[in-house]
């Protein structure tokens, strides 16, 4: 009886997934509603009491939530397509750069980690610069990357290919650092076991260390996927690429005084794109990696 | 027996965990006299760790009552009437050995000079003098557990609760620490309630062994251990020792005829932790 | 020879430590020098055009010539990043402490904090510029603060809550209250998590400040210098400014790492095994 109960308890988290899923969906709606309400309440209060700190509250700094959302379904310019269609096109364009950058960056990051894991000397020589590489403001070198990369690309990649490279630059770092830690996390006794089978260095790497690194890899990918979107947007900014989200941000930034909700609407779409990238990796992880539950009190 | 002359008085105690619908303990009655060394032994899931935690007021019983030194368990905890030792040493990595031992004294507001003096005494007691500045991760498992015992004894509690303190240690270290623990018990004169998986350990250490059966957890029988004190390595070789072991083993088997007795390496089922 | 014999042992140990540090850093130094020489050689040997990649020597010359204005610009941008770092991290730690007190709430909110972490907050830089005025430092501090907030919140919360249950039981056996448990168990337990987030936050704060400056900023700012000199084809100046930004970023990161080492001397990871 009790043992049956214990078994049941172990099964519970998987068996009863629909209930919690519904509840967390309801909770997200609730939290979103609370956030909107707080926004509107602060705006209402700020406009009446003339809050000046930390910034003055008015229609320009804090447009109504319904205006931001409503703006999506207004024409982007006179007789033009709806703003949401324009933004979805821009998001798709940026998503393509980010996805290519993500795959490129993750692969390169993984290979760098594998290479570094094979030699302490290599690690000592290069690891500090891999950390330092992230302090280089990529926004600043983006125009130069575009000048370097673009002429070498085939016609079909011209323009956005360079942005994917910039996006990859932001992607690779968490992957390298985490994978390296994961490759070194293999149980020393498991390594000894492999040695006892006379396994080669290569076999130990692929059959033991790489699988041991997967949970680490995925937690890195969850950081990297949204970073790839950030990289794509930052890469677009100085590359004078108009078709992506950065183009839309620059554009609506110029017209902010006349129509603040447009820029906000653009940011809502950008936020959704980042979260979508994260969600895809999180779901892939759920399907591919079985993790031990965290010990939390 | 009069309730005030008893170190621990357990009356009609039951514990049911709502999650998983487990009846962990059913109508337990037990008295522990001051100065006694009582072991709780039983298979995994018999609720012995749960019982220990109820005595310490770390878990609430569903029914029944526990008196410690004549007061409700909660009051006893607030008065710091007992010290507790867990299976893993639960030392704080960020504190040195000395500061781990002085933690309960700090919480009790003991001034620094007296704390330092007490830590020195305790280190001497568990034979770790010279290690005060070390950090827990620099010690072996046996040494860590000795620090944890020193910490539990540092504020001279009348009652010592021990939850399989030597379960994770190797046989040789375990026997040595058993001898040390008996010595400490005789020097301090405190009452000990000791949870274990090992029959030999329970017989060697205790004045009484409480044998429990599983699902639901009940007391299957109590064995009075009349081995003479002080006990030492030769105690383990005496015929009386072997007889007691047989007696405890028989009770364990009777309690759950169809269940094999798990070895010492078995990980105990801490239903308790889900309550947090 | 020193008369105080006791001093001998630590000095020897220190000497060994410094010695080991040197061999630790030697490969990195070799890579740095080799990299710069290779760069210089390639630029000269292949006659690479100046706008593609200036030679390190040319960048260094410019760095020296314009040292005072670049230094001022660096300080200006760093002060924005630092201000945002302090504000964002403080708020995040406070929020984590509140959430750690209400763990049920925290558990349901955590997925949303993680989702917020995935939002490209950089895209909000134009909006903070609109809020605080693009010429004000506060507009860049705001974007840096928002940028560091979520990673620090998520990590600190994880550190405050992933405590072994038996650690808490021990404290309860001493009749310790929530405040004592927090001060003596949760907080020290969270330190390693907090510091790894703070190190990431230094980099994010610098990126936030510079991207914020890209949209519009005072002429004193580093981001403005980089953008403007690239537009005027003064690539050596742009690169010199990039070097300044990177060096400041590395120093910022390293100083947090140093504080980590000092406050967590007990942690196995901060001592060479």
Describe the fold and architecture.
The complex is a heterotrimer of chains A (297), B (276) and C (273). Chain A has 297 residues and is an all-alpha fold. Chain A is 75% helix and 0% strand. Chain A has helices spanning 2-15, 18-49, 65-71, 83-117, 120-133, 138-149, 160-183, 188-196, 201-236, 245-254, 260-288. Chain B has 276 residues and is an alpha/beta fold. Chain B has a single domain, classed as 3-Layer(aba) Sandwich (Rossmann fold), CATH 3.40.50. Chain B is 34% helix and 22% strand. Chain B has 9 helices and 10 strands. Chain B has helices spanning 48-55, 73-78, 97-101, 103-107, 112-125, 141-153, 171-188, 199-205, 239-255, and strands at residues 8-17, 22-32, 37-41, 63-68, 71-72, 82-85, 159-163, 191-196, 208-213, 218-224. In chain B, the strands form 2 sheets. In chain B, strands 6-7-8-3-9-10 form a 6-stranded mixed sheet, sandwiched between helices. Chain B has a 4-stranded antiparallel sheet with strand order 2-1-4-5. In chain B, strand 4 and strand 5 form a beta hairpin. Chain C has 2 domains: 5-45; 66-270, MetI-like fold. In chain C, helix 2 packs across helix 10 (235-263) and helix 5 (125-132) crosses helix 6 (137-161). The model of chain C is unreliable at 1-14 (pLDDT under 50). Chains A and C meet through helix 2, helix 5, helix 6, helix 9 and helix 10 of A and helix 1, helix 4, helix 5, helix 6 and helix 7 of C.
Entry summary:
The complex is a heterotrimer of chains A (297), B (276) and C (273). Chain A has helices at residues 2-15, 18-49, 65-71, 83-117, 120-133, 138-149, 160-183, 188-196, 201-236, 245-254, 260-288.
CATH topology (fold) name of chain B: Rossmann fold
- Biggest sheet of chain B, open or closed, and with what strands and sense? 6 strands, mixed
Instruction: Assign a percent range to the helix content of chain A.
Output: over 70%
Which CATH class of the largest domain in chain A is shown?
Mainly Alpha
